[in-house]
Amino acid sequence: MATNIEQLTKTASQVRRDILRMVHACQSGHPGGSLGCTDFLVALYFDIMNHRTDFSMDGKGEDLFFLSNGHISPVFYSVLARSGYFDVKELATFRKLNSRLQGHPTTHEHLPGVRMASGSLGQGLSVAIGAALTKKLNGDASLVFSLHGDGEIQEGQIWEAAMYASANKVDNLIATIDVNGQQIDGSTEQVLSLGNLRAKWEAFGWDVLEMNGNDMADVIRGLNLAKTKTSKGKPVLILMQTEMGNGVDFMMHSHKWHGIAPNDEQLANALGQLEETLGDY
Amino acid sequence: MKKYTYTEKKDTRSGFGAGLLEAGKKNKDVVALCADLTGSLKMDAFQKEFPERFFQVGIAEANMIGIAAGMTIGGKIPFTGTFANFSTGRVYDQIRQSVAYSDKNVKICASHAGITLGEDGATHQILEDIGLMKMLPGMTVINPCDYNQTKAATLAIAEHEGPVYLRFGRPTVPVFTDPDQKFEIGKAWMVNEGTDVSIFATGHLVWKAIEAGEKLAEMGINAEIINIHTIKPLDEKAILTSVTKTGCVVSAEEHNRIGGLGDSIAQVLAQHLPSPQEYVAVNDSFGESGTPDQLMEKYGLSSDAIVKAVQKVLARKKAGN
């Protein structure tokens, strides 16, 4: 199936509306990173990954995705629902009592599409490596994708995993870092500088690519290029430049919208900037 | 007092190694991960037999737990191996989120538990691990008592669906349980039927309890000795049946008195059958360097300590408190 950038962009607009409405409805959650990573997740689930929506935990014969920075659950839930894992109406239960859509993703409530709890940061790369190793043992040629925040890589476990993956040639894995330069207490530069990310990951033995995470055509290009780099003896890393809050003018250029919800007026303003393309839930 | 004898002493970690090898032969989905302690964990036989199913992760325990959790996706049954301290305290959050909360079928196998690790001292002698692990919802916690029981437990957890913490040790201890036993998770083992006091022991303290039982028999005290190898899920029925008969309890474990087997038993009794209980356990302290025997003596984990605890609890029972 040919990639339809226009259609993907329309889907992304709807997903951004979902994110804002979900976070507004419960007056909590993380809109900034969710909006920034929307194009990436839409590209993965609607174009790049070979996956099935009749969910099985083992995911044999299909590509797998692990969200390591679990706080951007709104975008994950919206994309799962919009691609058919569960009814979009369920998005209205986000962060509410008795919901399968917990504040951070969990397998515990049996939400289709979620294979690992995340929220406590730094753990998802190890998990993705484990799933990739099992695919190799099972003779399963499909791929494992993961997403991490740039602030998240301040966690030491990420670097344990980075070292392991290259030393053991885990080359059926494409990890992406959302480089938005922001974290809760300020910019990554202010809080704890990440230094030269490309040099660091290359020094750890990864094949490093870059893409603009808020340009759908470039996301598709970058992910397809990454796929061609697999099975060559190295794990693949994408440094994905994004803008926290992308798609809503007043949420961009700041870390302020990392973890707060818009009020009624702000929601109306934000939704006015995003076309309703697939129908609100 | 039922007579228990032994012809050899072996370390429980070797029981794990033997069980792991056999589990690997039985089920091709069994995989093993180790954080640079393959020899100490006795995982070398598995590594040699199944090199493609053995994963050396280096000195990176957090990564090991995460990889193990991921490996379950697609049907593998991962056994992780390192010292108990690095299997629990060091990686508590990884176990909590990626294994327990994520409902992953990971077997966390921990050697060198407790003070019998010996000369390396307190940095390596964890006495809090049972407590840490039993507090995690859905986690099964097992602390077998000898080589044979550890081997049988290793085979049993391979067939059990769900996260397990299997705790064993470094020193050689008497091998006195049936080599062909079927290990039943959550089912206490009646070591010796008695009427005067219930001694509930786990791990290395089970043999100490048998020694204590023989001394008590000479003093005319008929002790019931029960091996609680599975601390969670706890065999509440066995505990209540025994204490209904004896009316008092001594718990014995190589663990901090806070948060271990004794507390699990006390919780059951407080709810259903309040009874006098004495603890044989480490008294809320860290360990230190020394030989295993010296440390067991110094930290009050000897058969004599069990005898004293029995005498004390019997006096309390008699006095009605």
Features:
heterodimer; A: 281 residues; alpha/beta; Rossmann fold; five-stranded parallel beta sheet; two-stranded antiparallel ribbon; 38% helix; globular; B: 321 residues; 2 domains; five-stranded mixed beta sheet
**Unreliable spans of chain B:** none
SSE class of chain A: alpha/beta
Mean pLDDT of chain B: 98
- Count of domains of chain B: 2
Radius of gyration of chain B: 19 Å
CATH superfamily of chain A: Thiamin diphosphate (ThDP)-binding fold, Pyr/PP domains
Largest interface: A-B, 40 and 31 residues
DSSP E strands of chain B, number: 14
Q: Which secondary-structure class do the elements of chain B indicate?
A: alpha/beta
Helix fraction of chain B by DSSP (H/I, runs of at least 4) = 40-55%
Written account of the structure:
The complex is a heterodimer of chains A (281) and B (321). Chain A has 281 residues and is α/β, with parallel strands linked by helices. Chain A has a single domain, classed as Rossmann fold. Chain A is built from 10 helices and 7 strands. In chain A, the strands form 2 sheets. Chain A has a 5-stranded parallel sheet, with helices on both faces. In chain A, strands 4-5 form a two-stranded antiparallel sheet. In chain A, strand 4 and strand 5 form a beta hairpin. In chain A, helix 3 packs across helix 9. The model of chain A has no long low-confidence stretch (mean pLDDT 97). Chain B has 321 residues and is an alpha/beta fold. Chain B folds into 2 domains: 166 residues, Thiamin diphosphate (ThDP)-binding fold, Pyr/PP domains (Rossmann fold), CATH 3.40.50.970; 131 residues, Rossmann fold (3-Layer(aba) Sandwich). In chain B, 40% of the residues lie in helices and 20% in strands. Chain B is built from 13 helices and 14 strands. In chain B, the strands form 3 sheets. A 7-stranded mixed sheet of chain B has the order 3-2-4-5-7-6-12, with helices on both faces. Chain B has a 5-stranded mixed sheet with strand order 9-11-10-13-14, sandwiched between helices. The longest helix of chain B has 17 residues. Chains A and B meet through helix 5 and helix 6 of A and helix 4 and helix 6 of B.
